[in-house]
Design brief:
This protein has about 475 residues and is of the alpha+beta class. It has 17 helices and 13 strands. The strands form three sheets. Strands 1, 4, 5, 6, 7 and 8 form a six-stranded mixed β-sheet that branches.
């Protein structure tokens, strides 16, 4: 039997907004997982006590941004439009069905001018603290990697600019060890005042006129674009422990130091760093192993000449400090350069008639030069660690941890590109997004374990207890 639908658009009903939100809705879980009133404690100094108009509730402002990041809504304007129509969003904010929602410009202005990077950092750390108190963090192991975020900048609007190369953070430590190594080999040490050093090197970079703090990113099959990179560390349970945002043209190994500083400052119990081959540099290996920690990393393909002899064919003799070539000739120590590499050179008159000369070197003097970093021993230690079953299995977990975090952030939470410009704004945007992801995981885990009980269940429990007490009193 055909039945036509009824158009009850003008009917008036007495309903409670709490009745219209499913009992297991994600926002109910988040609301029960943490106490949002703590936000008042660290934003009260940002507001005047007796001057100006009444503000929008800061908890509401943060909840609006959390809704945006949890559901991957691309812009604040779109977020506020969805909140007007979505009853679950209104319930989460504490707004009634007919209550006016704040304008998107109010939210945007507060997060640009009132809530600074310190406020965002507090939110990020606060969520992690709640997860740690619940026993969900595993800070013995940190998985480290970087992912690129497309910037809000047109690739065609750029200029070519000459900039000086950045000084290495460990330059002072490296120079001291270089001089000690040169003196040990009877060489004159380099001067600390750099009088014998050539002029500072410069490089030509492409700078966006729209967002100068972004950088060119082009890798493999990816389309060339301006981008930022989020250098991120997470634990075994995929909670994001820390993040450092840089321009898209900054190598992972360069951005490792500030990220590592934050990690050991907040989690001194950290024992193992799991990272890919991009982090397998002499300085990173030295720093981690000198801190009595372990670096679990991957095999790094040597950058040798195609068709030439492999680096494995040259054997380093540590006792005599010499290198033995495939034809069993010796390469003796020549010098230690400013980059920290010892140079071992062959005898040209011996190599002229060598049958492997064409595969070995194209030097006009028929001299083969093999370099070895003064910190190469740390790299070899990392290579030994790579073959142990424990740390090999840890490295295999990268696809389930840090790579999964990036996949979720881009597929579910809208982190493929950003509408913000400037390093400070993008950093705040990324930290809020990771804070929302941590909060979502925390709420779901508490819900599954029954550690967070919504207020409507608590009310029902107390109401039942009151009825039982009343019945026993009249019995």
């Amino acid at each position: 039997m055909l039945e036509t639908g009824q158009m009850n658009r003008d009917s008036v009903e007495m309903v409670n907004i709490d009745m219209l939100v499913p009992k297991d809705h994600l926002l109910r879980r988040i609301d029960a997982a943490i106490d949002f009133t703590k936000i008042y404690e660290f934003v009260k100094d940002l507001y005047s006590e007796d001057t100006g108009r009444p503000s929008v509730d800061p908890v509401v402002l943060f909840k609006i941004v959390l809704i945006q990041h949890i559901y991957g809504i691309p812009s604040l304007r779109r977020t506020l439009e969805d909140i007007r129509m979505n009853l679950a969003y209104r319930w989460f904010l504490g707004y009634g069905i007919a209550e006016t929602i704040p304008h998107f410009s109010t939210v945007s202005y507060n997060f640009k001018h009132r809530f600074n990077s310190g406020t965002i950092e507090y939110i990020f750390r606060w969520v992690l603290k709640e997860a740690a108190e619940a026993g969900y963090l595993d800070t013995n192991v940190a998985f480290v990697d970087g992912t690129h975020i497309k910037a809000n900048a047109n690739l065609k609007k750029q200029i070519r600019k000459e900039v000086p190369k950045e000084a290495k953070r460990y330059a002072g430590t490296l120079l001291k060890e270089i001089n000690a190594d040169r003196e040990e080999h009877g060489k004159k040490p380099f001067d600390d005042d750099h009088n014998d050093e050539p002029p500072a090197e410069t490089k030509i970079v492409s700078e966006s006129t729209t967002d100068p703090e972004s950088g060119i990113f082009h890798k493999g099959e990816h389309k060339k674009c301006f981008a930022y990179e989020a250098h991120t560390a997470c634990d075994r349970h995929n909670f994001v422990l820390d993040v450092v945002v840089t321009a898209g043209n900054i190598h992972d190994s360069i951005a490792f130091d500030p990220l590592y500083d934050e990690l050991i400052a907040h989690y001194p119990e950290l024992q193992t760093i799991v990272a890919d081959a991009a982090y397998k540099t002499p300085w990173i290996c030295k720093r981690i192993f000198d801190d009595n920690r372990i670096l679990s990393t991957a095999y790094k393909r040597p950058m040798t000449k195609k068709g030439g002899l492999s680096w494995r064919d040259y054997i380093y003799d540590e006792y005599y400090d010499q290198v033995i070539c495939p034809e069993y000739h010796l390469l003796n120590y020549a010098t230690t350069n400013r980059d920290g590499y010892r140079e071992y050179k062959s005898k040209g008159y011996l190599c002229q008639s060598c049958p492997s000369l064409s595969q070995c070197t194209a030097n006009a003097k028929c001299e083969k030069t093999v370099t070895r970093h003064i910190w190469q021993g740390y790299v070899e230690t990392a290579e030994d660690v790579r073959h142990t079953p424990e740390y090999r299995d840890l490295y295999y977990l990268r696809k389930e941890t840090i790579e999964r975090v990036f996949a979720d952030a881009k597929e579910k939470h809208g982190m493929r590109y950003t509408l913000y410009r400037g390093l400070a704004q993008v950093t705040n945007w990324v930290k809020l997004k990771f804070a929302a992801m941590n909060l979502k995981k925390l709420a779901n885990w508490k819900w599954k374990e029954g550690l967070c009980v919504p207020y409507f269940q608590l009310f029902g429990f107390f109401f039942t207890q009151m009825q039982r007490n009343a019945s026993s009193a009249f019995a």
